[in-house]
C-alpha cells in the first residue's frame, strides 16, 4: 500500500517545505518588481500554491488542499514576512531565487505525480500533472508579475527537464511499487540536482532547427 | 439558519449589482486599451465573473453560477453596450473605473466569503476566497489586458486591504451568527469606504523593508 | 439520441484534428518568440488543450479529457516535433499560424458547445463554453507568450465572431435535434470560412463609439 510507504505526515512535511521555498521565490520576485507587501503576499501564495491548486482542480480534489489545510495558507505569509525584513542585495536575491526555486521544483514534481496517481490518473497524466504542480506556480508567478515565463525562455537554463526527470522517476517508482519516503526524497533530490547543474553550467534546450535569429521580440 | 437571514433573492440582487459595476470597470479598461467591442465584452465578462468562477471551481460548485444563471452572463453585455455608447473623456474614465471598481470590491468580498462558508470551508479559507472573489476578476482583467495587475503595484492605492476588511467582517458575522441582509450590506459598505478613502488620501502599503530603490523595472 | 448521431469515434477524430492544428499554432508562436523546444511544447499543449480543460473544469468533467485520453496529450508533442524541424520562413509562419488557428477555431467551437450541452448546460451557456473552448487556448497561448491576446485587439481581424457563429449554429442544431456528423462538420466549416474571410478582407469589429484615438498604449 502506498499509504504505508509514504505516511501522510511525511508527505505533509514535504509539502510545507516545498510551499515555503516556492513562496520565498515569489516574494523575492515581488521585491525585484517593486511591489508592495500585499503584492509580495499574493505572489508568494500564487507561486507556492498555484501549481497544487491547478492539480487539485484537474483531479477533482475540491476544495484544493491549499484551502483546507491552514498550514498551506499561512506558510507563504511567513515567507513574505521573512523576505520583507531580509534587506537582500539584488545580487543575493537573484542567486537565492534560483536555489529556492530549484528546491521547490524538485519537491513538487514528485509530490504532484504521487497525488495525481493516488487519485486514479494514469502514469503519463501523473507525470504531466507532477510537472504542472512543479512549474505551474512559477508560471503563474511570472504571468502575474508581467514577465515572460522563465519556463518558456530560450535564454534561461533548463527548467522543465528537471521536473520531467523527477516526475518520471516518481512514476517509475509507482509503477514498480517501490515508492517510499526515501525513494521519493531521492527523486526530488535528483530533480533538484539536475536543476542546480543546469544553472551552474548554463544548460539550455535547443530552439527550432535552423532557427538562428538572434532577435528576441520585446521580451 | 443562514438561509433565512440572507434570502436568495437579496443575495442574487447583490451579485447582479456587483457583476454590473465590475463589468463597467472591465469595459472601460478595454476602451482605454483601444480594444474592439468584442474585446470589451470579453474583458467585461472576465472582470465581472472571473473571481466568482474561480471561487466556484475551488469550492466545487460546478457548473459555476455564472454558467447557470443567465442574468450573470447578460449583465456584463449590458454594461458593454452602455460603455460602448458612453463617449467618455479619458479623465472621466479613470475616475469612473476607480469608483465602480471599489463598489464591486465591497460587494464581492462579502458575497464570496458567505458562499465559500456555505459550502463548508473554514473561516480563514472563506476570507481568502472572499478576497479572491473580489480581486480575482480585476487581476484577470489586468492579465488579459496585458497590464501589471493593479493589485500588486506599489504605486497604487490600497486594494487588497479593503477586500480583506470586508471579508473579515463577513467572517466575524458568520462566526457570531449575526449575518443578515443589513449586516452584510454594512460589511460591503465598509470595504467600499475603505477603498474610496485609500483612493482619496493615496494610502499605500509599504514595500520590503529598506527597499528604497526608485527604479521600477519595465512596468 | 445525440449519441447515435455523433458517434464517439467521429467526435474523437474531430477533437484530435482540432488539437493538432491548435498545437501547430502554439508551437509556431513559440518559434517566433524565440522560445526553446520545451517552451514550444508547453505553448503547443496550452494552446491545444487550454480551452478544453477550462470547459471540462467548468462543466465538472474531471479529470478533463486532456488528462485521460493519451492521444490528446501526445498530439501536441507530435506537432511540436514537426514545427521544430520545419525551418519555416517568418512570413510563411505568420500565414500558417492564421490558417491553422482558423481551422482549430471552427472545430473547437462546435465540439465545445456539444460537450457542454451533453453535460446539462443550457443553450446560452453552451454557446459561451463552445466559444471559450475555441478561443480559450489562444488566449492562454498569448498570455503565456507575454503578448496582448489577439482576441481582444482592435487591429486584428474578427476572431470571436466566427466562434460565436459556429457555436450558435451548433446550439441551433441541438435545439432542433438536427445535430449529426455532417451538420456539425458544416457548422465548423462555416466558422472556419467566416474566419478566413475575416482574415482575407480585413474584417474588424468597431471600437467604442466616437473613440477615434489612434494611440495604442504600449501594445
UniProtKB/TrEMBL annotation, chains A, B, C:
Keyword field: Cell membrane, Membrane, Transmembrane, Transmembrane helix
Residues passing through the membrane, by range: 12-30, 37-54, 66-86, 156-176, 182-203
Topology relative to the membrane: Multi-pass membrane protein
UniProt-recorded name of the protein: YghA protein
Organism in which the protein naturally occurs: Streptomyces himastatinicus ATCC 53653
Domain of life: Bacteria
Subcellular location, record wording: Cell membrane
KW Ion transport (keyword) present: no
Domain Glycine transporter: 13-87, 99-173
Family named by the database record: Belongs to the UPF0126 family.
Cross-referenced InterPro entries: Gly_transporter (IPR005115)
One Gene Ontology cellular component: plasma membrane
Taxonomic placement: Bacteria, Bacillati, Actinomycetota, Actinomycetes, Kitasatosporales
Amino acid at each position: 500500500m502506498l499509504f504505508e510507504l509514504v505516511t501522510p505526515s511525511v508527505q505533509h512535511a514535504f509539502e510545507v517545505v516545498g510551499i515555503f521555498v516556492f513562496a520565498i521565490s515569489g516574494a523575492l520576485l515581488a521585491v525585484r518588481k517593486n511591489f508592495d507587501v500585499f503584492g509580495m503576499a499574493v505572489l508568494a501564495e500564487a507561486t507556492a500554491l498555484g501549481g497544487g491548486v491547478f492539480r487539485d482542480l484537474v483531479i477533482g480534489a475540491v476544495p484544493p488542499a491549499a484551502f483546507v489545510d491552514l498550514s498551506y495558507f499561512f506558510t507563504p505569509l511567513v515567507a513574505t514576512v521573512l523576505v520583507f525584513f531580509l534587506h537582500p542585495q539584488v545580487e543575493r536575491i537573484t542567486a537565492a531565487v534560483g536555489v529556492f526555486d530549484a528546491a521547490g521544483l524538485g519537491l513538487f514534481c514528485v509530490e504532484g505525480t504521487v497525488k495525481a496517481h493516488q487519485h486514479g490518473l494514469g502514469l503519463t497524466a501523473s507525470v504531466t500533472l507532477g510537472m504542472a504542480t512543479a512549474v505551474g506556480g512559477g508560471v503563474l508567478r511570472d504571468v502575474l508579475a508581467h514577465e515572460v515565463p522563465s519556463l518558456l525562455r530560450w535564454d534561461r537554463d533548463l527548467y522543465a527537464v528537471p521536473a520531467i526527470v523527477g516526475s518520471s522517476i516518481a512514476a517509475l517508482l509507482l509503477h514498480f511499487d517501490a515508492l517510499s519516503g526515501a525513494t521519493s526524497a531521492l527523486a526530488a533530490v535528483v530533480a533538484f540536482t539536475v536543476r542546480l547543474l543546469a544553472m551552474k553550467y548554463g544548460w539550455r534546450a535547443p530552439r527550432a532547427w535552423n532557427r538562428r535569429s538572434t532577435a528576441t521580440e520585446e521580451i
